[in-house]
Specification:
- There is one protein chain.
- By secondary structure, this protein is an all-alpha fold.
- The chain contains one helix and no strands.
- It is rod-shaped, with a radius of gyration of 15 Å.
- The mean pLDDT is 80.
- One of its GO terms (biological process) is photosynthetic electron transport chain.
- One of its GO terms (molecular function) is chlorophyll binding.
- InterPro entries: PS_II_antenna-like_sf.
Length: 35
């Protein structure tokens, strides 16, 4: 059970982190363009 949670959590972070980085990059680029 613990192994399943670890694998699921690891996969979740691998899948979700690129979206977070992408959103931060878009926000940063938007701030740079407006400034």
């Amino acid at each position: 059970m613990i192994g399943v949670l670890c694998i699921t959590g690891g996969t979740w972070h691998i899948v979700t982190e690129p979206f977070i980085w992408f959103k931060q990059a878009v926000i940063f680029s938007g701030d740079a363009l407006f400034s």
